[in-house]
Design goal:
The structure holds three protein chains of three kinds. By secondary structure, chain A is α+β, with helices and mostly antiparallel strands. Chain A has three domains: 147 residues, D-Maltodextrin-Binding Protein, domain 2; 119 residues, Dipeptide-binding Protein, Domain 1 (Dipeptide-binding Protein, domain 1); 211 residues, Dipeptide-binding Protein, Domain 3 (Dipeptide-binding Protein, domain 3, Roll). Chain A is built from 15 helices and 21 strands. In chain A, strands 1, 10, 11, 12, 13, 14, 15, 16, 17, 18 and 19 form an eleven-stranded mixed beta sheet that branches. In chain A, strands 4-5-7-6 form a four-stranded antiparallel beta sheet, with helices on one face. Chain A has a two-stranded antiparallel ribbon with strand order 2-3. By secondary structure, chain B is mainly α. Chain B contains 13 helices and two strands; from the N terminus they run H-H-E-H-H-E-H-H-H-H-H-H-H-H-H. A two-stranded antiparallel sheet of chain B has the order 1-2. In chain C, helix 1 packs antiparallel against helix 2 and helix 8 packs across helix 10. Helix content of chain C is 77%, strand content 0%. Chain C is built from 13 helices and no strands. Classes of the chains: A alpha+beta, B mainly alpha, C mainly alpha. Chains in contact: A-B, A-C, B-C. At the B-C interface, helix 7, helix 11, helix 12 and helix 13 of B face helix 2, helix 6, helix 7, helix 8 and helix 11 of C.
């Protein structure tokens, strides 16, 4: 009997353990932070909070919370606004710029932001040891290219602090849209506190933005708190959560449950029903970005412009946009996304002409049909859909067999770089408002060209246009350059992007613009929710 | 049950096993005959009917001119039979359509076919590897057996899911561009990581058989070893192979759908039940639920697995009531 | 190869051999301990095999961790390759990485520059562990009573219902279950949040989805075990002595019947861990599973290897625990 009750006790003991272990583990794993005043569903986990590493959109978005560049942009109009600098002037040549920093600029640790911090930060960005992609934004500064290639030390860079509040930049060439380009999230002052053991995990970065990091849990959230030293501290939300979640569907669910205030992307198939809702939560705007195909002009048949043009003109862009895309996108008749002063191009697409060009080519070469063409694209449902629609269109209009080669992004980029493709999906999202952001990609010496397209006429017209001051003449010259590129059909534009943001009703000052950038300083939220 | 009942008779005494076997037979026939049946082209985009809900009337329509031309041009016996039997008739999208207006019924049938093919290819691979390893180990017995079984233990402690994900990433980036070759390699990979159960069961059986009376007798008759193995050992291992398959096949199917759901499995334009469920989940939301996109492939997969599990239970009961159940 | 690498490899090999020999020695006097030691010795070669396979597959796959950014210039790429030692000979990289794995230090993450792979994984581990433990708890709470009732009420309507439901539980993929649970309890009733992690409410639906296949398997195992055990003499004797039905069940029948159930907890833990890959990514839960697929796709070598190794060790340990518990519970089992 006593043995039996021993067994009984043991059973009870085991059961208790079975219940207790999960409860204790759960209690340890849970860290209920409570709902933040403002919650951003930010997509992928940011690679780093170091703005020098801010190479993708989610990193840039976080950086705008943590840092403030010299200049910020109006969320609605993209007009430059004071940031860390209150005013700026240039000399008549446009090559020497003087920025006056605000007196009350403060880092999150309370210390003053001085011009020397900008000097250090800009030198660090260009220093090849930093390995920052953002250096590209400073290449027009005097000596930047020499520093970048290691021929000159970083302190040779043309930046100087002539007083604690005066920051001077000397340029070699006048870049397009210079003042606006300074709003890029990497061009900011910062202090780095390395961890004593040298491990990456212990490093701390102090910024001058409206918020600072409270804590961070990978793949979950970055909890931000208001930077009490920032001038806008009285009106910004007390706490902000930046959620790392790359599933648009999941974020939508959380938004609808009221757990998130700003979602930067929605599942494509849900755009229509969300727009149909009356709450106006989904805000969409045309975006300065283009979805296109690269054509490998080094491949035997694709080397002939008639074949490329046939493929190009056979695409019915309007039908494709209607059939495969969510709603805000527009058919791309050119590479440069439409914007202020840029003439719209006529509708691109002419199946009869496409057929005629291809037949002429086949007749000349004595071919019955074109050998199968391969279209490479990366694994994402929307690319798949577009690929299938393109494939059907080419087969029906031109009788060409198109093999779809779906691969993950890394492999696609490797294949494109190695020139191992016929047609490949590509896209370009503008990082400033000038057309050169698109056209520079296809200069014959540009690393991202990768089509084999090299036309001295295009290079010359692009260079000539880019040298002109901002205004209609410059736009007209760049438009002519683009015509050369489009006539060669080395790149087949498909559609221009649209931005989709889900924003809670109580957020004001969000703004909608072609670059889809939003400075949180301008947000006003009613914190009672 | 009487002693004289053979295993097959025992198997089909069980009503649920009979139902499961019937269901499996019907589903397999539909999948195999998919090209003969008047199903819509699973890839045919029709954006005028995106996300259509399931609807039972009209049950059939006629092919579009383009679809008819495609069918007329299709080579092979199955399309010819379809033309002869059904002409231009085509089944309407009874189970609704997806985001491109493609017929979900037709897509589910194709997905089902590919999932079955995955299971078949993987099963063959597990049979080849598992039987070879198990029979070798059990037949040799002694030291060899001990070493081989320790290696099997080692292989068993490898969490295969994780290795397969790497293998798939590799496969994706490899030079293989022929989609059907890719799919077969993917299925074979599933088999290559699922042979352990087979090896263990076959080995136990071989170990018991090698000391059995008729093998001794064959040896006494002076038969050569390969002859004994192929004439007497392997045929007697067939029941245990079937038992092992009944355990392995459902697991492979679940594994395939799991990988496809993670986006690491079958790639479009190929379809499996897992990839269909994945797009169903992507379309599922509280604004406009579109449940049919998830439910149709999900129920198809669950039915298939349920039938296989029920049949597997019955097979194991018939083979040996004492064998473990999962 | 550095001295540290060499030292680590040597220490690991020595530890494995020592555990193996000690386990063999103790096999007769302390069978459970001896068995545990021998199985522990097997963990080291397992880690090496898994590491080698994963490393080879990753390095053989075209496209490195820094090839995904088309705007990155060659200066940057070369600097990064040097910083993360990708420019070293393959054999050296492999040995360094293996030694790191054996020390449980996987190196800095290549995709997330602010953190070491080990720290990233360790921040996710408690979440996955809690979720997994909760799932196993639900599975036991659902599966064991169901199995007991089915066995005791054999012949009534309950038994076939439990059998059908458990067959379904084994057949329905857990992503379907999770979606159904979200649809019902989150969108429908609003009881639990659809995604995210922070409060206990966030853990309920994912754990439930993870637990169902395990609960189904447990119900079947308990039922079968009890059906074997109930007709045995000692159970009949206990009942004849007039002991209450609860006492007969819990003290006399269940301990013997639970053997296969306990042995199944190892594979069950593996099922839950695997399932968590899907469930975590569906519900945006910051566990280890979410890292796994993305690290493999991003070619974040240290993080991907770290995740594989941690999963391997966890699965090995759970199998070991379950087998040891099985052996302790039932002296007839020769481990």
């Amino acid at each position: 009997m006593s043995m039996a009750s021993g067994v009984f006790t043991r059973v009870i003991g085991w059961s208790a353990a079975v219940v207790l272990v999960p409860v204790v583990l759960l209690a340890m794993a849970l860290r209920d932070p409570g709902r933040a005043d403002f919650v951003l569903g930010n997509g992928n986990e940011p690679k780093s909070l170091d703005p020098a590493e801010a190479s993708a959109i989610p990193e840039g978005r976080v950086a705008r919370f943590l840092f403030e560049p010299l200049v910020t942009l109006d969320n609605a109009t993209l007009e430059p606004l004071p940031g860390a600098a209150t005013s700026w002037t240039s000399d008549p040549t446009g090559l020497r710029w003087t920025f006056t920093l605000r007196d009350d600029g403060r880092f999150a640790d309370g210390t003053r932001v001085e011009a020397s911090h900008f000097v250090d930060a800009f030198r660090r960005l260009v220093d090849p040891k930093t390995a920052s992609r953002a250096a590209a934004y400073l290449l027009d500064v005097a000596n930047a290219r020499a520093v970048r290639s290691g021929k000159r030390p970083p302190d040779a860079l043309g930046v100087a602090a002539t007083s604690p509040t005066t920051f001077v930049m000397t340029l070699e060439t006048r870049p397009a849209d210079f003042v606006r380009s300074l709003a890029f999230p990497a061009l900011v002052p910062l202090k780095i506190v390395e961890s004593p053991d040298g491990r990456a995990s212990g490093r701390r970065i102090v910024g001058n933005g409206p918020f600072r990091v409270d804590y961070r849990r990978p793949r979950d959230r970055i909890r931000l708190e208001r930077n009490p030293h920032h001038r806008d501290a009285a009106k910004t939300p007390r706490t902000v959560d930046v959620l790392a979640c790359d599933s648009a569907g999941t974020l939508l669910n959380m938004f609808l449950a009221g757990d998130v205030d700003w979602v930067t992307d929605v599942p494509p198939t849900l755009v229509a029903p969300l727009l149909a809702r009356t709450d106006g939560a989904l805000r969409t705007a045309p975006m300065s970005g283009t979805y296109f195909l690269r054509v490998n002009t080094r491949k035997p048949h694709l080397a002939d412009v008639r074949v490329r043009r046939a493929l190009d003109l056979a695409v019915d862009r309007e039908a494709l946009v209607r059939a495969a895309l969510p709603g805000g996108e527009s058919a791309a008749n050119g590479l440069v996304a439409p914007g202020a002063g840029w003439n719209p191009r006529p509708r691109r697409g002419d199946p009869t002409e496409a057929r005629r060009l291809l037949d002429a080519f086949l007749a000349e070469k004595g071919l019955r049909e074109l050998p199968p063409v391969e279209y490479a694209y990366n694994t994402l449902d929307i690319h798949q859909t577009i690929a299938e629609v393109l494939q059907r269109g080419w087969t029906e209009t031109l009788g060409i067999r198109v093999r779809l080669a779906r691969m993950e992004n890394a492999s696609l980029l490797a294949a494109v770089k190695a020139g191992d493709f016929d047609l490949a999906r590509g896209s370009w999202i503008a990082d400033h408002t000038d057309p050169t952001t698109f056209l520079d990609v296809f200069r014959s010496d540009a690393p991202n060209n990768q089509t084999g397209f090299a036309d001295p006429t295009f290079d010359a017209r692009l260079a000539a246009g880019a040298a002109l001051p901002e205004g209609p003449a410059r736009l007209a010259a760049l438009f002519d350059a683009e015509s050369v590129l489009l006539d060669a059909s080395a790149v087949i534009p498909i559609h221009h992007y649209a931005s989709y943001n889900l924003v809670a009703r109580n957020v004001r000052g969000f703004g909608l613009n072609a670059l889809d950038i939003h400075f949180p300083q301008q947000f006003e939220t009613e914190t009672s929710r | 049950m009487s002693r004289s009942d053979g295993p097959v008779a025992i198997l089909f005494k069980d009503t649920s096993a009979r139902i499961a076997a019937g269901l499996l037979l019907i589903l397999t026939l539909v999948a195999m005959g998919a090209d003969v049946l008047p199903l819509a082209d699973p890839g045919a985009v029709d954006t005028s009917r995106r996300f259509a809900a399931p609807r039972l009337a009209p049950a059939t329509t006629t092919l579009s001119a383009e679809g008819a031309a495609r069918l007329a041009a299709a080579p092979g016996l199955a399309p010819a039979m379809r033309r002869a039997l059904f002409g231009d008739t085509v089944i309407a999208p009874l189970l609704g359509t997806d985001e491109l207006g493609r017929c979900l019924l037709s897509r589910t049938v194709r997905g089902f076919r590919l999932s079955l093919a995955a299971a078949a290819v993987a099963a063959i691979v597990t049979l080849l590897i598992g039987t070879t390893v198990g029979a070798f180990s059990g037949w040799k017995a002694g030291r060899t057996d001990a070493i081989v079984m320790r290696l099997v233990d080692l292989a068993d402690s490898v969490p295969v899911v994780f290795i397969v994900i790497f293998a798939v990433a590799f496969l994706r980036a490899s030079g293989i561009t022929d989609p059907s070759a890719k799919v077969v390699v993917f299925f074979a990979t599933l088999g290559m990581v699922s042979w352990i159960t087979m090896a263990r069961l076959v080995r136990a059986s071989a170990l018991a058989l090698r000391t059995g009376a008729f093998i001794d007798a064959s040896r006494a008759l002076g038969m050569s070893e390969p002859r004994i193995v192929f004439r007497h050992l392997l045929p007697n291992l067939v029941p245990v192979m079937i038992v092992a398959l009944s355990l392995t096949v459902p697991r492979i199917l679940l594994f395939e759908s799991f990988l496809s759901f993670l986006g690491m499995g079958v790639e479009a334009p190929d379809l499996s039940l897992g990839t269909l469920a994945r797009s169903g989940f992507a379309a599922f939301n509280p604004v406009d639920p579109r449940v049919h996109l998830l439910l149709v492939p999900g129920i198809a997969l669950a039915l298939l697995l349920l039938a296989l599990n029920v049949l597997g239970d019955a097979v194991r009961d018939a083979a040996d009531p004492r064998l473990p159940r999962p | 190869m550095t001295a540290a690498t060499f030292g680590t490899l040597l220490t690991a090999a020595a530890a494995a051999v020592a555990a193996g020999i000690a386990g063999r020695r103790l096999a007769a006097s302390r069978p459970v301990l001896g068995f545990t030691l021998r199985r522990l010795a097997l963990v080291v070669p397992t880690v090496i095999v898994v590491h080698a396979a994963a490393f080879a597959l990753m390095r053989a796959t075209p496209g490195g961790p820094f090839d995904t950014d088309p705007r990155m210039d060659p200066v940057v790429r070369a600097e990064l390759a040097a910083r993360y030692r990708l420019d070293r000979p393959l054999l050296e990289s492999w040995l360094d990485s293996l030694a790191g794995a054996l020390r449980f230090d996987f190196g800095p993450s290549m995709a997330w520059r602010d953190a070491d792979a080990t720290d990233i994984l360790l921040s996710g581990l408690p979440v996955s562990a809690a979720l997994g433990a909760l799932a196993l708890l639900f599975a036991v709470l659902l599966g064991v009573p169901a199995g007991i009732v089915a066995a005791l009420r054999r012949g009534s309507w309950i038994d076939p219902v439990v059998r059908v439901v458990s067959s379904l539980g084994l057949a329905i993929p857990n992503f379907l279950v999770a979606t159904a649970l979200i649809a019902l309890f989150s969108f429908g009733l609003g009881w639990f949040p659809p995604a995210g992690f922070g409060t206990w409410k966030h853990a309920v639906l994912p754990a439930l989805a993870l637990s169902l296949p395990v609960a189904a398997a447990l119900a079947r195992l308990v039922r079968t075990g009890l059906l074997v055990e109930l007709p045995k003499d000692h159970v009949r004797t206990a009942r004849a002595k007039g002991l209450g039905p609860a006492r007969v069940l819990f003290v006399h029948a269940l301990p013997g019947a639970l053997g296969p159930t306990v042995a199944y907890l190892g594979p069950a833990a593996a099922t839950v861990l695997t399932g968590s890959l899907v469930i975590e990514s569906m519900a945006a839960i910051p566990g280890m599973g979410t890292h796994f697929v993305s690290a493999a796709m991003n070619r974040d070598y240290p993080l991907a290897l770290g995740a594989v190794i941690i999963y391997t060790v966890l699965v090995s340990l759970f199998n070991l625990l379950a087998d040891a518990a099985h052996a302790a519970l039932d002296p007839r089992i020769k481990p």
